[in-house]
Amino acid sequence: MGYQQGLSGLSASSSDLDVIGNNIANANTVGFKSGTAEFADMYANSIATAVNQQVGIGTQLSEVQQQFSQGTITTTNQALNVAINGNGFFQMSSNGTLTYSRNGVFQLDKNGYITNAQGLQLMGYGANSSGIINTAQTVPLKVPTANIAPQATTSITAGLNLNAQDDLMLGAPTVTAGAGNTGTLNTTGATITNGAAGTNTDNYTINFTSPTTYTITDHTLGTTSASQDFTAGTAITLGNGESITFSGAPASGDSYTVAPNPTAFNQNSASTYNYSTSTTAYDTLGGSQTVNMYFAKTSAGTWNVYAGTSTGAATLVGTANFNSSGTLVSTANPDGTPTTTLGAFNVSIPTSDGSSTPQNITLNLGTTTQYGGKDGVNSLSTDGYAAGQLTSFTVGTDGTLTGNYSNGQTAALGQIVLANFSNQNGLVDLGNNEYGQTAASGVAQISAPGSTNHGVLQGGAVENSNVDLTSELVNLITAQRNYQANAQTIKTQQTVDQTLINL
Question: pTM score, two decimals?
Answer without folding.
Answer: 0.71
